[in-house]
Structure formats: C-alpha cells, structure tokens
Design a protein that fits this description.
heterodimer; A: 327 residues; mainly alpha; MetI-like fold; 14 helices; globular; B: mainly alpha; 12 helices; elongated
C-alpha cells in the first residue's frame, strides 16, 4: 500500500507544476498589475513604477518569472504580491483555515444527510418519501449555488428583522469584535457565522451524494448475501446495519473525496455571497489584480488538497473493499 | 419467434434494429418525469426564441414604467430604469441556452475523442493523456475565465465563454468515455473485428463509438445542465456575459441586492436557470434508464 501511495504522490508533482505554470501564465497575460499605478491621477513618478517592476520581477519573461516563483516556493517563499506588504504565504494559511472550516463542516453535514435519506429512500423504494427526496434532490442539483446562498441570506435577514435577534449572521466569517470575546463567545460567534454558508454549500453536494447512496444501497439490497442474511432470520435492523450499510457506504467514500474540488469551487462562490475573507476572496482578488504569485500559490495549495484527498479515497476504498488491491 | 425464423435473414436483421430503438423510445416515454421535462424544455425554447417575436417589448426597450411589480402589462415586472423583465428573461434564456449548448458540444466532442483514444491505446499514451486531464481539472475556472476574458473581443463575448467552459468540461466527459471504452474493448466483437483486419480508426468509429453512444448521450445531456449553471456562476463572478448583452446568470447577478425590495427581478431569471437545469437532469435520467440494456422495463 505504501509504495502505491508514494507513487501516486510522485505522479502528482508534474501535474501540479504544469497546472500552476498554466495558471501563472494565464494570469500574467490577463493584464498589467501596475496599470492602476500608471493610470493614477496625478501619475505615479517613473521611479516608483521602476521600483515596482523590479520588485515584481516584471521585466523577465513568463517562464523565467515562473522559475523564480517555483524555486522560491521550494524554499518556503511564496514571492512578492502585487499588493505591497501582503504576505502570500501567511494569507494562504489564514484563508485556508477559514475556508476549510466551511468546507469540512458542509461536507460532513451533506454526508450525514445523504446517507440517511439515501438509505431510507432505497429501503422504501417508490414510496412517497422516496419520490419527494428524489425530486428535491433534482431541484437542489439544478440550483446555482449563489442563488441558494442569496435566497438563504434573504430569508435570514427577514427572520432576524422579524424577531429582532441575530441568530444568523449574514456577513463575514466572524464579528468585528471577535478578538475581544471570551473563548465560549468566540465559538458561538464562529458557529453563528457558519450556519448559513454551510447549508448553502451542503445542499448541492447533498443532492448528488444522496442519489449515489440510494443507488448503491439498492444494488446491495438486491444481492444474494443480503437475501441469505434475511433468510437466516436476522432482524431487518441487523441486516441493514451489519450487512447492507457496510458495503453500500463504500462508493460514497470515493465520490465524496473526488468531489472536493467541486466543493472548493462552490466555496469560492458561497464565500463571495456571504462576504467571507477566505480562499475565495484571495483567488478573486489575485485574478482581478493580475497577481500571478498569489494565484499560483493558491492553485498549489488547493491542488495539493485535491490530490491528497483523491489518494486518501483510493486507499480507503482498498481498505473498505477487500476485493480491491493496489499492487 | 417462429415467425421471424421463417423470414429471409436480411429481413429479420432490419426488423430487429427497429425494435431496439423502439424499445428505447418506449422505455423513455414510460419515464414520466423525463417526458414532462422534455415538454417543459420545448416550452422554454419557444418562450426564448418565439417569445421576442410576439412580445411587444424588446430587451433593450426602456419603458416609462419604473420598478413595477408583475402585472398584466409586464408579467415579470420592470427594473429600475424601465426594462421589461420578461423581454430581458427571454433574451437571457436565449443567450444562456446558446452558451450551454455550445459548451456541451465542445465538451462532448473533445472529451469523447480524447477518452476513446486513451481507452483504446492504453499504456503510456493513456497515462499521459489522463495526466493532461488532471492538469485541466486542477485549473481554477475563474482564473482561466478572467485571463481569457481580457483578451476576448466584445462582439464574440458569448462565444469566448462557451470556449472557456467547454475547454474545462471535456475532461469529465473523457473520463466517462474512457471507462466505457476500456470495458468495451475487452469484449469479443472488438476482438472479432480486429481479427478481420479492421484498423484502429475503423474500430473507434464503427464499433466503439456506436456502442458507447448511450453513455455519451447521457453525459452530454447532463453536461448541458451543468453548463447552464457554469455560465451563471461565471456571470455572477463578473467574468461571464457583460452588459449591454444579458444572460440568465447576469440577470440574477445584477439583481442580487434587490432580492428583498424587488424580488421579481431576482426570482424570474433564477427560476428559468433552475427550470433548464432541472429538465436536462430529468431527461438525462430518463435516457440513462431507457438506454441501459440491463433494464428490463420493469420501471414503475
């Protein structure tokens, strides 16, 4: 197993290098990061422009600049940002904590809901419950993620206004006065800000995952060994938890891990709607300002997260399903 | 059965072929949600393309009715400067459909060829091609869109969005097609064709693709649904369709702050996005059930 994991991670290195180079080149070609400086009124002195050009390494061609960036990253230096005084490495770490909090909680919520409703609608196939959840799942799948987020936000604002309370926070990932709060209040504050974006992000994954869970449960329910377990006289509950669920959960593990890239993409949009200062804003600001180093750093971080999750999925798959072997 | 045996061989073959497609058609018709969706989708297309010819306002018209709630004169209301929202939604639906279909076309053609070649040749070529797929899947859509958007000319705006999203969609299709091809190529009829001296081109075009067609059609249908949502997301982030042209995504995006004061501006275009994506998902589901040879038609 270990050699397999190592080989997979090694194979991912060239993929990451090529992908980050393409992103780097695209962002570099998208615009001149010094344009705001040059168009400023009164115009910035030539000396300042020269200094910025030298600081950002803009005189070299893209391949050389990328090489400088890459060798810098290997030494732990993420390079200069277009925004002066902006530490890309530190901001990546801070944004990652903010965004991963949202992503992890949303994925957990989506998973729990998906397993429960997926199994229930498989067990009661073609019942009213099954039809309702199937239809709802299709509706959630068809909703743009920002649309759900905006509707939820509007509902929360209405609720807050009607009751005169702020149970749901609709702006930002924490309050302005967060640092002055007691530890308990801090946790409550973070949770209050987390509720709505989490639901918005979870609904879409939930829709797809519950469909998978339903399909895989149906397949297992129809298999001979489940029929045997029933024939042995085991109770329904025991058949379901011991025999059906153990096998039926395996496909979902893979799907969940493979979907992390999509969830991260969804988080960018959810964060925008709720004004979070996480990886989403970092990417959008970086792209908007033609900040090559920031975008390439962003891609490296998310790319590693995605690849590691994919490898974990394959390993888990092999551990859960004894028929699979990675030699 | 005895009837068929009595007929000449050529005749039986023709009858059989028709039966296969008839069977698929029957199974599809039995999928009520899929058929309803297909009808709804035709209505949406009529609304988008025939509607503007009949409706009294154009999407560029500025009327004297400012910020009006839905009424008989303006079924979807008007916006702050007097645009008729229904005319705008018609235009937006046109553009969104056009973009989504182009994305699905680009993504499906490219992804099918890529996946078929990788699956057929396997080995090093397959490994290399699949790593390229990995690279494309790692790229953040927004960065690509923003970079290309700056270069794109204003006139061919919708086209450049279709190309960007199409270029980021094909990897998903190619993975599916590769999987199908990998399992097909091991089957006897491919071996037989090869034994008869068929070249790779012939095997791909005459044997693999027709047999993989079912899966490809299903993926293409589902791709249209995601493409509509993708266009909407790009327009929401400001790197999609730009004013004065419009799309459903752009309409929702520019009206996001009016959701509590003038909700009709936000909800009507949103409903149409959901309607298009929903109908395509159901049609894809129906096609999958109808084309699946393992299905016996026992669906209720």
């Amino acid at each position: 197993m270990l050699p397999y994991v190592v080989r997979r991670l090694f194979a991912a290195v060239p993929v990451l290098i090529v992908a980050s180079f393409i992103a780097y080149a695209l962002v570099a070609l998208s615009g001149d990061p010094l344009e705001p400086l040059k168009l400023r009124n009164p115009p910035a002195p030539q000396h300042t422009i020269d200094l910025e050009t030298a600081r950002l390494d803009l005189d070299d061609n893209i391949a050389v600049r990328y090489w400088h960036w890459l060798t810098g990253v290997l030494r732990g230096d993420f390079g200069e940002s277009v925004q002066s005084g902006y530490d890309i490495g530190a901001n990546l770490a801070r944004s990652a904590v903010v965004t991963l909090r949202l992503v992890v909680v949303a994925m957990l919520l989506a998973l729990v809901l998906a397993v429960i409703t997926g199994v229930m609608s498989a067990v009661r196939r073609y019942s009213r419950f099954d039809h309702t959840t199937t239809f709802l799942g299709f509706v959630f799948l068809a909703m743009p993620s920002f649309w759900i987020a905006i509707v939820l936000k509007d509902l929360a604002v209405r609720y807050n206004r009607a009751t005169g309370t702020t149970v749901f926070y609709t702006i930002g990932e924490k309050s302005q006065n967060y640092d002055s709060l007691s530890p308990l209040a801090k946790a409550g504050d973070l949770a209050g800000h987390l509720i709505l974006p989490t639901i918005a992000l979870a609904l879409i994954s939930y829709a797809a995952w519950s469909r998978y869970q339903r399909a895989s449960t149906l397949e297992v329910l129809d298999s001979d060994y489940v029929r045997l377990a029933r024939a042995k006289g085991l109770t329904r509950r025991r058949v379901l938890t011991r025999h059906v669920l153990r096998t039926a959960l395996i496909p979902l593990v893979t799907v969940t891990a493979l979907d992390i890239a999509a969830v991260l993409g969804g988080a960018v949009i959810t964060e925008t709607v709720f004004n979070w200062n996480g990886l989403g804003r970092m990417l959008l600001t970086g792209v908007g300002r033609a900040d090559t180093n920031a975008v390439a750093g962003w891609l490296l971080l998310t790319g590693i997260v995605v690849i590691v999750c994919n490898v974990i999925a394959d390993v888990l798959y092999a551990l859960l399903d004894p028929r699979i072997r990675h030699e | 059965m005895s009837d068929a045996a009595a007929r000449p061989v050529a005749d039986t073959a023709v009858v059989r072929e028709r039966r296969q497609s008839e069977l698929v058609f029957r199974r599809f018709v039995r999928h009520r949600a899929a058929v309803t969706s297909l009808i709804l989708f035709v209505l949406v297309v009529l609304f988008a393309y025939v509607g503007p010819l009949v409706w009294k306002y154009s999407y560029t018209d500025i009327t004297d009715d400012l910020s009006q709630a839905p009424s008989l004169g303006h079924p979807f209301g008007t916006d702050l400067i007097g645009h008729d929202t229904m005319a705008q939604v018609m235009r937006g639906t046109q553009q969104s459909l056009k973009i989504a279909l182009a994305i699905a076309l680009i993504g499906t053609v490219l992804g099918t060829l890529w996946g078929a070649i990788a699956g057929l040749y396997r080995g090093r070529l397959d490994f290399l091609m699949m790593r390229i797929v990995d690279v494309v899947l790692t790229l953040p859509t927004i960065a690509v869109a923003a970079a290309v958007a700056v270069q794109g000319a204003d006139g061919s705006r919708w086209w450049s969005i279709a190309v960007i999203l199409g270029a980021l969609t094909w990897p998903y299709v190619s993975r599916v097609v590769r999987g199908v091809v990998l399992s097909l190529r091991e089957q006897e009829f491919i071996e037989a064709a090869r034994a008869l001296g068929a070249g790779n081109t012939r095997i791909i075009l005459r044997h693999l693709l027709p047999n993989a067609l079912g899966s490809i059609v299903v993926v293409a249908t589902l791709t249209i649904a995601t493409a509509v949502l993708g266009e909407a997301a790009l327009s929401f982030l400001g790197v999609g369709v730009q004013a004065p042209d419009t799309s459903l995504g752009l309409l929702v995006s520019i009206n996001r702050d009016t959701v509590s004061t003038r909700p009709w501006l936000f909800y009507f275009p949103g409903m149409f996005i959901i309607l298009i994506a929903l109908t395509f998902n159901f049609v894809g589901d129906g096609l999958r059930d109808a084309l699946d040879p393992k299905q016996t038609g026992a669906r209720r």
